[in-house]
Structure formats: C-alpha cells, structure tokens
Amino acid sequence: MRMSYNRLWKLLIDKNMKKSDLRKVAGISSSSLVKLGKGENVTTDVILKICVALDCRVEDIMEIIKDETLTSEN
C-alpha cells in the first residue's frame, strides 16, 4: 500500500492555487513539497499545516492506494 496525494493536487486546482502558493501559505519547505509530488512520506506536521492552510480534512488531500501487483509463491 502507498499514499496518494492526488486529492491535494485536485484541491489546489479547484482553489486556483499553484504548488508554490501552497508552500507559502502552509509554511512548508520545498523539500516537503517535492516529497508530496513524488508520493513519498511526509510528517504529520506537514499534513496538518496543509489542512489548516486549505481549511480541509486529511481525507480531502490524501488517500491510501492498494498495490495491485501481488507476488505469489509457486
């Protein structure tokens, strides 16, 4: 399983915001923004700052995606 931040990018489009706008408004670092863009792990502090800045809930910006490729032993 992995985290997906596609909901965050869609929300930014709906709010007519760029990623750089989010970085400034939420007070997060450029490296955190890069991690989000790559679907990597970020701290809960970063998630909280984004939610406060965008006035949204955690589930509005991220979701868990199940990996469809499962390995099996034969």
Can you describe this structure?
The protein has about 70 residues and is mainly α. The chain is built from four helices and two strands. It has helices at about 5-15, 20-25, 30-35, 45-55; strands at about 1-5, 65. Strands 1-2 form a two-stranded antiparallel ribbon. The longest helix is centred in the middle third of the chain and has 11 residues, at about 45-55.
Summarize the structure.
The protein is mainly α. It is built from four helices and two strands, in the order E-H-H-H-H-E.
- Globular, elongated, flat, extended or rod-shaped: what is the shape? globular
Q: Please state roughly what percent of the residues sit in beta strands, choosing from under 5%, 5-15%, 15-25%, 25-35%, 35-45% or over 45%.
A: 5-15%
Percentage of residues in helical conformation: 40-55%
Q: Give Rg in angstroms.
A: 14 Å
Total beta strands: 2
Which sequence of SSEs, written as H and E, runs from N to C? EHHHHE
Structural class: mainly alpha
How many H/I helical runs? 4
